[in-house]
Amino acid sequence: MNGVLTPTPTHRKRWTREDCAFLERSGLLTGKWELLDGEIVVKMPQNYPHANAVSFLLAYCLSLVGPARVRTQATMEIHEADQSLNRPEPDVVILREPVRRIPLASDVLLVAEVSDSTQADDFGHKAMLYARAGIPEYWVLDVARELLVIFRQPEDSEYTQRIEHHVSDSATPLFTDQAVLVSTLLP
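Given the sequence above, the corresponding structure tokens read:
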């Protein structure tokens, strides 16, 4: 042995939605979770800033379109190619019109995530998933940095436009002219 460590291969299991459904039925997967690129992400209980920011964001979205067109922390469908290994549950979704089923990407006008301890997923994998699904607008409310980041113009697996709004700025979704002051969304 020459003192050099040789890496050992790691074996990982990429879970599918079918696997997760089986685990849920078996009682082995409980509570709140998301499936992102084959990894089960157990959602931790919300801390005070996250919970308040979700409430403020939800209130704003409800004021725009009413309760029949808003979903909160519920599953939505994404691009067909990504569905088997992904089951995101965005913090807030605004729909084009009311639906009585799990919303499809084509039903969605805007997806929003409140980000405090999940920046890597929210700015990385989720942004890619939502862009590939063709979601026209994706908002990330970054609580720690007091910033609202808006992604627009999805092309393939990325958004070509990224706009940062600071705490004293206003932001307006593409589908309306009703602006919101970023500070009113933050706890």
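The chain is about 20% helix and 25% strand. Try to locate this feature in the token string yourself.
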